[in-house]
Amino acid sequence: MATLIHTLADHSDDVNYCAFSSSCLATCSLDKTVRVYSLKDFTELPYSPLRGHTYAVHCCCFSPSGQLLASCSTDGTTLLWGSGDGRLRAVLGQPSRSPVRVCRFCPRTTHLLAGAADGSLALWDTQTLKLYRSGNVKDGSLVACAFSPNGNFFVTGSSCGDLTIWDDKMRCLYNEKAHDLGVTCCDISSQPISDGEHGFTYFQMASCGQDNQIKLWLILFTDVLGVELKYKCTLSGHSAPVLACAFSYDGQMLVSGSVDKCVIIHETSTANTVHTLSQHTRYVTTCAFAPCSPLLATGSMDKTVNIWQLDLRQPCAGNTVENESKMAVEDWSEDDVSAWLCAQDLADFVELFKMNNIDGKQLLNLTKESLTNELKIESLGLRSKVLQKIEELRMISVPLAIPDEFLCPITRELMKDPVIAADGYSYEKEAVENWISNKRRSSPMTNLPLTSLMLTPNRSLKMAIARWLETQQKPRETTQELTERK
User: What is the distance between the alpha carbons of residues 470 and 192, in angstroms, rounded to a whole number?
Assistant: First the structure.
């Protein structure tokens, strides 16, 4: 279920892009402004709108820490803003002076990628504010880009229809003609897919284009083949060019927006359409899922941004239950487990699981030993596949549950040994030590000089994290104990 809960109508021209941080929503427009809203009540922040561009703003995005906001424009610049105060931090001029169409922060470094209408790429270091690398796509304008979750590579899309994979040194690794009439958008899921049988890790990517199509791809890195881009499937539903696509945080859903004025939410595992939203009156130009809450934003040439509340506890189309949260999985019946097995292409195990009365709680407690000794699954490959799918279920809601103050601003991972730096912020000790050892004397959060390199253990935060972990890691009854008790 997707419910329209708010409409933002502050822009005076087409909305081109919208982006979430953990606490804010940013939107940009042909009206030359960027607007920023609080997710608590969708009120516009006091410093909004941001005015600095002299022509249309095409794209905006938040840094991994949420402390910086980038925007790019026809005026040939990418601007860096402080998301806490709206202060302009830097003006990054595209070396070619061409209109900048898209910008993205690397999720693991301080780099910001900007792509322009002449096909040029600029990779900026947001700490030194210097150009780190530059490049060019083979043909056409650069209109789309997306980073892998580990930051080791990124993908660009061009108006000529090419998808190009680059490494973090701006070396071209792979090129594929993906959409005959031109790519319009691409996105990479933040959750990789593991192949338990072969030990491979795939990165799931979506692309859309002027050909009315949305395509799902798998990106694989191997020692023998190098980079491999594998076509997975095409998602149907739109009757006109598709202008935007974006994965949900867990990779289970993909949203798309089109010239046909519709927004479609797809289930990635089955390619089924879950919802079709038709409230916009003109082309849908942008859509984005929030990372920390069940919210979806869609923007349009009708000058509005719609905010949708998603009911993630509802099973998706096709009677699958894959998008349930961890707590909901524990409440699954044996029939729910059977439906999940079918959705994971594990239908051969339905009768076996029913014979052993495997419900949701027991499913989450299955181990390699119980699959071997109790369920008698002899094939190592099949055991690995089942365990991998169960692990994905366990992990679906974990990233969303971690309080933001427990995450290191540098690594965006749960801190084990938090320390306080001279800027007043807490970081993972090893991460900030590495930051300083690379001769960086500025704050990772504010970009201002550090008055001291002293790091003070944050014992109260460490204790708070430990208490939180205890609540998340309550001992579970094993399948064998539950069986014996019956």
Answer: 27
Can you tell me the distance from the alpha carbon of 163 to that of 154, in angstroms, rounded to the nearest whole number?
10
197 pLDDT tier (thresholds 50, 70, 90): low
CA 418/CA 8 separation, integer angstroms: 39
Q: Which two tokens stand for residue 105?
A: 């922060």
How are beta strands 305-310 and 2-8 bridged, if at all?
antiparallel
- Tens-digit pLDDT profile for residues 139-176: 889 999 999 988 889 999 999 999 999 998 899 999 99
Best CA proximity match to 316, nearest among 392, 397, 252? 252
- Residue 195 pLDDT exceeds 70: no
Strands 183-188 and 33-38, how do they pair? Answer: unpaired
**Contact indicator for 162, 176 with CB cutoff of 8 Å:** yes
Distance CA 360, CA 329 (A): 5
Distances (CA, A) of 435 to 161, 274, 408, 423: 39, 44, 12, 14
Q: Give 376-379's long-range contacts (Cβ < 8 A, gap of 24+).
A: 377/349, 377/352
For residue 395, the model assigns a pLDDT of: 57
pLDDT recorded at residue 368: 85
Res 453 pLDDT > 70:
yes
The rounded Cα 355 to chain-centroid distance in angstroms is 39
DSSP string, 378-444: --HHHHHHHHHHHHHHHHSSHHHHS-GGGB-TTT-SB-SSEEE-TTS-EEEHHHHHHHHHTT--B-T
Sheet holding 418-420, edge to edge: 426-428, 418-420, 456-457
Torsions phi, psi of 380, nearest 5?
-60, -40
Segment 457-469 mean pLDDT: 88
322 has a pLDDT exceeding 60: no
